[in-house]
Design goal:
Elements lengths: L11 H5 L5 E4 H9 L6 E3 L8 H9 L5 E5 L6 H9 L5 E4 L4 H6 L2 H15 L3 E5 L2 H6 L3 H12 L2 E5 L11 H15 L11 E5 L4 H13 L4 E5 L4 H6 L6 E3 L6 H11 L11 H16 L2 H19 L8 E6 L1 H13 L3 E7 L7 H10 L4 E4 L4 H11 L3 E4 L4 H5 L5 E3 L7 H17 L2 H6 L8 H5 L6 E3 L3
Parallel strand pairs: 3-4, 3-5, 5-6, 7-8, 7-9, 10-11, 10-13, 11-12, 13-14
Antiparallel strand pairs: 1-12, 2-15
């Protein structure tokens, strides 16, 4: 049976044994994922975390000529603010369900919202994003979709985000991609393959996407990019592509998997192109798959020489670095740090699953005692770890950099810069060099009273992480 026949995909916990809470040596993590069963962990206290609604909306922001209806109470509009923060030009509203709607149903409100957006914007596609409240009261979204699609002659895609089917927010990517493939590509009949290749780019920084696109086009590869900055036609064309190339081995995995299983589009097993070594490995994998190995090798050699010349005397020799990022970014940055002489003090990743087995095994063979911390939004755990390790540099997203800076540790937020490819190496090196050279701001912040009591720090770092009891 096609996996697209269901309303939503299987949870990442069931499909990939995804963990959202873990702390320990990387060798232990590698050994655990080598077993047939991975034991889930839970947190007895969680400070904050993203949810799958936010992750699903990250994907929808990239679809051109679309409108999004967040079907839920007005509080859910906060997740929709990602549309604005990401600079998206897509339109969105919230149906603003009240107590009566959650009991009696809100089909009428949903119909009114879809019609209003259609009359105002005349989009190519409308997304109806459910939320936990709708999942509980079981609103009949499908009936509204079928009725209005015929009446308005409009593509309408229901996306069934529940908020509780998975403990890991990254499942929102799978949920959105499942719906997009089902309703935009599901009816496509492939008669013959095109000359294009799918570049799978999920919630990527625009500079990262442009860097990857430029490298592949330099090899003469015609690209169909999705879902970032894509159209309905991008999804309709995807099943006819020769290959699918991931810009990240994690977020677009479900997209590549379905295109391979349902439409026979080969999925290139390629690492994330971060750092000189990582970008070279990415190009090598693509070159071998698409029979452009010589061109890929020549491109890598030329770009590496140009990049090293521009880097000059940049070095991280003797610098201890802590990484706190999405799983794919963290694992791909480790070779970058090490190829310039830096030492990894520890890493925090948002989740850990079977997609990371190769990275875990590589790290376990090189540095078996390296501590890996799995957490999304657990700021106090990260701060507690950093106080003990006292690294020379912290690389993360914007979530924790304020509190980390209070420890007097130089910080670099990677949300505002692209890190992919050779241009990413240069941008990241400049930011790191600047952070290490200008410590006065961190020194000033370190005199501010920390937000956590000393009793919190006296507890072990995994105090709130427990193995789930079945």
């Amino acid at each position: 049976m096609s996996p697209l026949r269901s309303k939503a995909p299987r949870s990442r916990e069931k499909r990939l044994d995804t963990l959202g809470a873990w702390l320990g040596p990387v060798s232990v993590a590698a050994k655990e994922f080598a077993a047939t069963e991975v034991f889930q962990r839970i947190r007895t206290f969680a400070q904050s975390s993203s949810d799958d609604l936010l992750y699903a909306l990250r994907i929808l922001t990239g679809i051109k000529e679309s409108v999004t209806i967040i079907h839920g109470p007005r509080g859910c509009v906060a997740a929709g603010l990602y549309h604005i923060a990401a600079g998206s030009e897509t339109r969105w509203i919230v149906t603003n369900l009240d107590e009566r709607d959650t009991i009696m149903g809100a089909d009428r409100k949903l119909r009114t919202a879809v019609k209003a957006l259609y009359q105002r914007y005349r989009p190519q596609v409308a997304f109806i994003v459910a939320n936990p409240v709708v999942a509980i009261n079981n609103d009949d979204i499908q009936s509204v979709v079928e009725e209005l699609q015929e009446e308005l002659d409009l593509l309408i895609v229901p996306i069934y985000v529940t908020g509780f089917s998975s403990q890991n927010a990254v499942s929102g990517y799978d949920t959105a991609l499942h719906a997009l493939l089902k309703y935009l590509s599901g009816t496509t009949t492939v008669t013959e393959k095109s000359g294009a290749v799918n570049l799978l780019s999920v919630a990527e920084h625009p500079l990262d996407r442009k860097e990857a696109q430029a490298l592949l086009e330099a090899l003469g590869i015609e690209l169909n990019i999705l879902p970032d900055d894509s159209t309905v036609e991008s999804f309709k064309s995807a099943p006819a592509a020769r290959f699918s190339i991931p810009l990240c081995p994690d977020a677009p995995e479900y997209l590549g998997l379905i295109l391979k299983e349902k439409y026979g589009v080969p999925f290139v097993d390629a690492p994330r192109p971060v750092g000189l070594e990582g970008t070279g490995r990415w190009l090598k994998a693509i070159g071998a798959a698409l029979d452009v190995a010589d061109g890929a090798e020549e491109l890598h050699s030329r770009k590496t020489a140009e990049t090293l010349q521009q880097l000059g005397d940049f070095s991280l020799a003797g610098t201890t670095v802590y990484l706190s990022l999405s799983s794919a970014n963290a694992f791909s940055l480790i070779p970058f740090i090490e190829e310039f002489g830096g030492v990894i003090a520890g890493i925090t990743v948002t989740h850990l699953d079977r997609l990371h087995v190769r990275s875990l095994n590589e790290l376990a063979s090189q540095n078996p005692d390296l501590q890996i911390h799995v957490a999304d939004g657990q700021e106090f755990e990260v701060i507690s770890i950093l106080r003990r390790l006292s690294p020379d540099l912290y690389l993360g997203d914007s979530t924790h950099v304020g509190q980390v800076a209070r420890l007097g540790i130089p910080t670099v937020s990677l949300e505002s810069i692209g890190i992919v490819g050779y241009g990413g190496v240069l941008r990241l090196a400049r930011r790191i060099k600047s952070a290490l050279a200008n410590r006065s701001f961190g020194d000033t912040l370190s005199r501010v009273i920390p937000p956590y009591r000393e009793s919190w720090y006296n507890r072990s770092d995994n105090w709130h992480i427990k193995q789930e009891v079945k």
